[in-house]
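Q: Hi! Curious about what Extracellular solute-binding protein looks like structurally. Here's the sequence.
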Amino acid sequence: MEITVDPMKTSRRNFLSFALGVPIVGATLAACGSSGPGDNSGKGGGGGAGGTYWYLSVDPNETIRRTSLERFNKAKPDEAIKGTAFQNDAYKEKIKVAIGAGQAPTVIWGWGGGGLASWVDAGAVEDLTSWFDDNPDQKTRRFPSSFAAATVDGKIYAVPAETVTPIVLYWNKKVFKDVGVQPPTTWEEMLALVPKFTEKKIAAFSLAGQSRWTNMMWLEFLFDRIGGPEVFQAVFEGEKDAWSNPASIKALGEVQKLVKAGGFVKGFASITADTNADQALLTSGKAAMMLHGAWTYGSMKTEGGDFVKDGDLGYMNFPPVAGGTGDPSNTYGNPGQYYSLSSKASEEEKKAAKDFFATQVLSDEEQSDWVNDAGQVPIVVGVDSKFSGLEDADWLQFVYDTASKAQTFSQSWDQALSPTAAEELLNNIAKLFSLDVTPQEFADNMNAVIGK
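A: Let's find out. The predicted structure is below.
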């Protein structure tokens, strides 16, 4: 099913409409993630005359973001912007506090969706609709699907940028070969693999459980594969007791079945995604599989020794669940990354920010950085023409195909929901994975915050 989404007609309460597949014109769709602060005062010139910019750390993405800013500052020293990098979880807390205090940076990096809607409600970010109207190529050159999560009540409040990064089920080919098993084609086969790896003292799945949003990926796919995207759509639309859907309860039970079977690496609740420790478990062969965002490919390539170079990394979309109604082509993640403009910025800072926005992801240099250095797919129409002959061509094509061929490409739950509901979700997910709540208790707790 292909539905063309008009971002100007997309409201904040229309999660499923921007999840549904959009026809790709030589382009694709999109997807979360990353990993104290590092300062970049604009080495290319100036140092803050155009305001400030906060973004996520961890290479290779951090270096690309910093390099992009340095190029802008060198080209426009009178509008130089000061950049500061933060780890993922620290950033989420710091930006929330800064916006609440009216002290947000000029350029606000984000994920769109529910978080952006809360900033709009607080009057913290500028309406950029007229800027896009005045600069039509800024819209037409970016993937159409990326604008839905940037749109609130029919107006665009963020510039879609960077890359499409769906969530991927990674596997270690060498481990599978050594144990003598094949990659799973169903959820049931995934469960059946657990004791086979355990017997060899290998964790079936690596998981950075302390970060919580990493656990959430499992629920996103199980909800989808069992009941389809409509299950979470009901939550998003605020339907009473939506979390108690039988498909939801079954999905919650299935993930606890995996926990009880010892499917995740021992001590997963103390591992953080910001340290890339979960990726190291996969690349070192201590874990056989890992469900994570496509953004982790670049760090596994740079930090995993010869793991990627030697062809030991396998990847696939999440398999179907027996009897489930969700389309197995469906995927989850973020439909891009987003830059918003603080409404508190001065007119001089706002001009500099808009000039900076105009350079983001559309230049050949930046596209090359994302494709070659990070192994990621920029959200630019026609970018697939750059894949041919590249070392990572197969991976890039996989990401492209996963996103563009998905019947439904849904935004990560914690970004689609309001910050209040998202925090409660993450807290209860941690309890679910630690077996401190039953599936029904999880549903009851989450039903209490629907619509908040």
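A: A fun detail: Residues 61-75 form the longest helix (15 residues).
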